[in-house]
Design goal:
With about 300 residues, the chain is α/β, with parallel strands linked by helices. Helix content is about 40%, strand content about 25%. The longest helix is centred in the N-terminal third of the chain and has 29 residues. NodD regulates the expression of the nodABCFE genes which encode other nodulation proteins. NodD is also a negative regulator of its own expression. Binds flavonoids as inducers.
């Protein structure tokens, strides 16, 4: 038995005084209304309505039941409205995990605009270069810049993240400029060793793919640290474009092996699979796509 449907039918019969009128209001046949009432009375073991050929009125038990049923149905309607309103005007807490560098350099400057648009949301941002578990750590959205492995999580691509090999002018003057990927074996390298490829660098050019295991002197999970070490002349670094851009503009770094490219990473918004994606998550991801989705330069590792 559909208890809620039976309650609605009963309340309409009492309010209208007629099975036929209740059926018209609920867009149901008279026989369907009669069945709902019969099922309700059978489940309760009590008669709720006095019936004549043209009129129905509540019994004493029916009147008491009617008064409670009206309250129950109003509470259900209020609950439905609360969810509907939450879908159109998001409220509550939105927990977001993002890499440190992307969070400080790219996400931070645009958060105020998102907060302005959705002032009733509480936004909690956790910046970390550790690969936190989105489900176990309770995040609504996790931003990752990577070549993602397949998983049970849903990932939406926000933008590509191209990378380039950079070094300081002083380093290149002292150690020479590599002309081919194989030349990297003779250079000190600064590596981000937390990708699926580990410390290996893959470079692709007209002569095909080259996998290089660099002789690294620094391995770190934050690309800004790699950039700073490269500026100080400590070696070659494979950097996301946005992290290297300012140093390149100032002449503190130069790109090498421009005829070869590393596989681009991408910024993804990762979230657990749910039947109904919450509106606050959808709006936040849509906001990121709007702000960053048209960029070719990408964001950056950690």
């Amino acid at each position: 038995m559909d208890k809620v449907a039976s309650l609605r039918a009963f309340v309409k019969v009492v309010e209208s005084g007629s099975f036929a009128e209740a059926g018209r209001q609920l867009r149901l046949s008279r026989s369907a209304i009669s069945k709902y009432i019969a099922d309700l009375e059978e489940s309760l073991g009590a008669q709720l309505l006095n019936r004549t050929t043209r009129h129905a009125s509540p019994t004493e038990n029916g009147q008491r039941y009617f008064e409670r049923a009206v309250v129950i149905l109003s509470e259900i309607e209020a609950a439905d409205q609360a969810v509907t309103q939450a879908q159109s005007a998001p409220r509550g807490l939105l927990r977001v995990n993002a890499p440190m560098s992307f969070g400080t350099m790219r996400l931070g400057p645009v958060l105020a605009d998102f907060m302005e648009n959705y002032s009733e949301l509480q936004l909690q941002i956790v910046l970390s270069d550790d690969l936190l578990d989105p489900v176990q750590d309770g995040f609504d959205v996790t931003l990752r810049i990577a070549d993602l492995e397949s998983s049970s999580l849903i990932a939406r691509k926000i933008m590509p993240v191209p990378r380039m090999i950079c070094a300081s002018p002083d380093y290149l003057a002292q150690h020479g400029t590599p002309k081919h990927p194989q030349d990297l074996r003779a250079h000190a390298s600064l590596t981000y060793g937390f990708l699926l490829t580990g410390n290996q660098w893959k470079l692709t050019g007209r002569d095909g793919d080259h996998w290089i295991q660099p002789d690294w002197s620094l391995c770190v999970n934050n690309a800004e640290v790699l950039r700073d070490a490269a500026i100080k002349g400590k070696g070659l670094a494979l950097l996301p474009q946005f992290i290297a851009a300012d140093a390149l503009h100032k002449g503190e770094l130069r790109t090498v092996l421009d005829d070869y490219s590393a596989p681009p990473l991408a910024l993804y918004a990762v979230y657990p699979p749910t039947r109904h994606l919450s509106v606050k998550v959808r709006l936040f991801i849509d906001f990121l796509v709007e702000r960053f989705g048209g960029e070719g330069e990408g964001a950056g590792m950690g």
